[in-house]
Amino acid sequence: MIPRLTDAERAALVDLLPEWSLAKDRDAIERRFAFADFSEAFAFMTRVALLAEKHDHHPEWSNVYNRVTILLSTHDAGGLSARDIRLAEAIDGLA
Amino acid sequence: MIPRLTDAERAALVDLLPEWSLAKDRDAIERRFAFADFSEAFAFMTRVALLAEKHDHHPEWSNVYNRVTILLSTHDAGGLSARDIRLAEAIDGLA
Q1: pLDDT, tens digit, for every residue of B5-30?
Q2: Cα(A36)–Cα(A16) distance, rounded to whole angstroms?
Q3: How confident is the model at residue B1, as a pLDDT?
Q4: Shortest Cα distance from B60 to chain A (angstroms)?
Q5: The A67-72 sheet, strands edge to edge
Q6: Largest CA distance in chain B
Q7: Per the CB < 8 Å rule, is A38 touching B53?
Q8: Which domains does chain A show, CATH number per domain?
Q9: Angle at the Cα of B8 from the Cα atoms of B3 and B9, rounded to 5 degrees
Q10: Burial class (CB in 10 A: 0-12, 13-18, 19+), B81
Q11: CB pairs below 8 Å between A and B: how many?
């Protein structure tokens, strides 16, 4: 079992990942991205897919034309863990 | 404005696209796919993305690890059109 984030780690999220917000009905973080068109959105998704495989941690995500929504949570933790923070930081590094 | 499917065309969907079902709260069709892992799921998504660009018609879709859900509807028709059928048939051709 992977440990969930502590209260102190959660409090630090606002500064650490200012573009991400806590999901409403899940112990998860999410971020929405908008691009010029589908081609740019899917190019970004491809880079995120490579990151996900590298981290062995995968997003729950959706795409509608130029928009991409990414939700991160850790199944083996039953909620947010350090793995989500690391992947979110890596994704932010692309954007 | 693109014409929506007629009643006769809708009645034919069961035979034409047996793997697809009507969405519950949208005038749309959807299909769920399951793969061995994320890598296979995303490889499939990449092929669907190429089809979407070729057809100039894009899915609303989501992915969680090995699962992919695709919903097709035509914004410019306010619901299902022949474009959705053509793209669904092309996607079935990959699977």
Answers
A1: 999 999 999 999 999 999 999 999 99
A2: 27
A3: 86
A4: 5
A5: A21-22, A29-34, A67-72, A60-64, B60-64, B67-72, B29-34, B21-22
A6: 40
A7: yes
A8: 5-91 (3.30.1360.20)
A9: 55
A10: buried
A11: 35
The complex's ipTM works out to 0.95
Model pLDDT for residues A17-45, shown as the tens digit of each residue: 999 999 999 999 999 999 999 999 999 99
Q: Which pTM was predicted?
A: 0.96
Q: What is the DSSP letter of A79?
A: B
Structure tokens at B50: 């190429």
As a residue count, chain A comes to: 95
What three-state secondary structure class fits B37? Answer: coil
Cross-chain Cβ contact B61/A60 below 8 Å: no
Using CB atoms, which residue from A46, A52, A62 is nearest to B38? Answer: A52
Q: Please, what is the end-to-end C-alpha distance for chain A in angstroms?
A: 31
Which parts of chain B sit beneath pLDDT 70? none
